[in-house]
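Exercise: predict the structure of this protein bound to magnesium ion.
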Amino acid sequence: MENHLSNDSHNIIRCREVTARYGRVVALDGVTVDIPCGSLTAVAGPNGAGKSTLLKAILGWLRLAHGEIRIGDAHPQHVLPRLAYLPQRQTVDWDFPITVREVVEQGRYPALRVGRRLGRSDHERVDRALEELALPPLANRQIRMLSGGQQQRVFLARALAQGADIFLLDEPFNGLDRFATEELTHILLGWKAQGRTVLAAIHDIELAKRHFEIGVLLATRLIAAGPVGDALSEPNLEAAFLGSHCTHGDGLNLVRTAQFPT
Ligand code: ADP
Ligand code: MG
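Solution:
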């Protein structure tokens, strides 16, 4: 992995007053949060809270209605190779005939010049990614033949093959059984130990509290952000899930501009 982590300002995902709309729907409203790289961050909140939208905004895919996002000092679109995205599983077409290795090779396409094929160093990266996720025995299988947990590993391998160090995962635990959940947790903890950054939209609050360090709680607005136990505290969860964020009840531990130690 390239070392992107040598200087501190390089090392933070900064969202400033981020407002994102789909037509008239406000999906994110004035979200300001700093997310340190090299950490596991859980993005929580009810359905429609803007979790997926925040991930897409950080990927530079949305034109923001207001505010800005910086990865280090750069606009997301200037550091695309650093950013890898794992879509929600429901959005992927599983009937398409494609092997595990071919999916992982897709991770190299963005780096290729038009019309070029994968070279030796591309194949080496693909092999390393397959190995890191224990996929060589499955490399020639059709992806649709795999279990949910195995499929998830394939998409993580594609992200690794890309050479990214910041991973934006949309509900990666959804639909996984207990074994696959533990396996994925283990992989993500290993990534963190290597200085990689994981930002995952997560449904399961207990899981987030157990394994993630930082919590970002959304309900269109930022309800709280900080160490996961604080951010996802009961009062904050109530505010997010019962909609009382709209009235800003007193006594809630709202942290609007979160700063974290790096
Ligand atoms: P979450 O991932 O937390 O469930 P989303 O970011 O997907 O929330 O959605 C936030 C809000 O934006 C919701 O009200 C949702 O209906 C709306 N939304 C998301 N994507 C689109 C889209 N492509 N077109 C219109 N509205 C959208
Ligand atoms: Mg979503």
